[in-house]
Amino acid sequence: MTGYTLFDTNAGRCGVAWGPRGLRAVQLPEADDGETVAQLTDAVPDARPMEPPASVHDALDQIVALLNGEAGDLSSVELDMTGVPPFHRRVYQLIRTVPPGETITYGEAATLLGSPGAARAVGQAMRRNPFPLVVPCHRVVAAGGKLGGFSANGGLATKVELLALETPSAPTR
After folding, report:
1. Residues 72, 10 contacting (CB under 8 angstroms)
2. What is the Cα–Cα distance from 25 to 148, expressed in whole angstroms?
3. What is the pLDDT of residues 73-103, one digit of tens each?
4. SS3 79
5. Which residues span the domain enclosing 140?
6. Three-state SS for 113?
7. Is the predicted pLDDT of residue 69 greater than 90, yes or no?
8. Residue 79, domain member (yes or no)
9. Is it the case that residue 55 has pLDDT exceeding 80?
10. Hey, which residues are catalytic here?
11. Cα–Cα distances in angstroms (integers) from residue 117 to residues 2, 65, 124, 140, 150, in the given order
């Protein structure tokens, strides 16, 4: 069964969709609940509103804690990457190892993946990340520590806020 739910955080109402193999999508707050649900169901068309199982409740608790500025580790949250291209899977697995309060550049990620010329491909994977926060794409920055882009609602301002939650000396542009 594939479901979704919305939940309250300090950042607003977020959402997750899940299936038998783990989370299938994480949605940061949109302008309203309807738009948040629309984004989730665009990503996971077969998801229906329902009460999440215990494993998803655990993930929600961890996401809420992170958005409250509490130390947390989402690396154990199970993700269902069915349909995610192989290169993107590798990128997401790598980015999940970047600790809170630290950043990595697109180029560094590409090099660590054995594809030193693939910084733009890493950026595309981040732009299409269906699991923001769990795959902490906000921790990926451009060369020279510039923030680069962020595709979630609020754009770079949201990226700055997420980085600031994790470290008091987060970059501001």
Report:
1. no
2. 23
3. 788 899 999 989 999 999 999 999 998 888 9
4. strand
5. 86-166
6. coil
7. no
8. no
9. yes
10. 137
11. 37, 36, 13, 16, 21
